[in-house]
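The protein record minuted underneath.
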Amino acid sequence: MKAYTWHRGRLSDGLKLRSHERFGPSVLLGERGRGRVETIVSLDRKAPPVSEIQRVLECDVKTITLPARDGRPEKSFVVLTAQRSEQQEAVLVHVCTEWVYTRATSGRYTPITGEVQELACGQGAHGIAGRIGSWVDVLLRMPFGSEIEIRPEGGYKVETYRLWVDEEGCAHSATLDDRQMMLAMEMA
């Protein structure tokens, strides 16, 4: 699958890798701390994806489930693996709704069309206890032809965006107004 990252209104190729003290190069979602959730999407140890300059451009995703034992519940986590086949029906998109601090606002996304699947989710926040404002940081599997609406944190200070994947598997992003104008021109 092709991989993309959406952050602060920009769509870029690949998933950015950051070093983690325990898991090595990983995609880190959210942040650590009170009222926050950090989720680590590491690389598969047996078949890691090819990375170029700390970015993974194409990969597959595998879910690993650890069984319940010693009173602990079952736990699942996602890892990035090497791409197995050339034919793909979806892309991976890392969406971070962090933008500008504004009291009592929260960044979020909403699926519009298609079977968008949330693979991993982290959360960031502002304030000591994370109660002043928050934002989500997710890894999504978006099939060809799907679309989501992204409402970054910041309230009236930022615009709403749309992110969609065309039938050829390329991801695109535009403001809500621009996207509505594109759709209107297609219908005319």
User: Anything to note?
Assistant: Residues 3-187 form one domain.
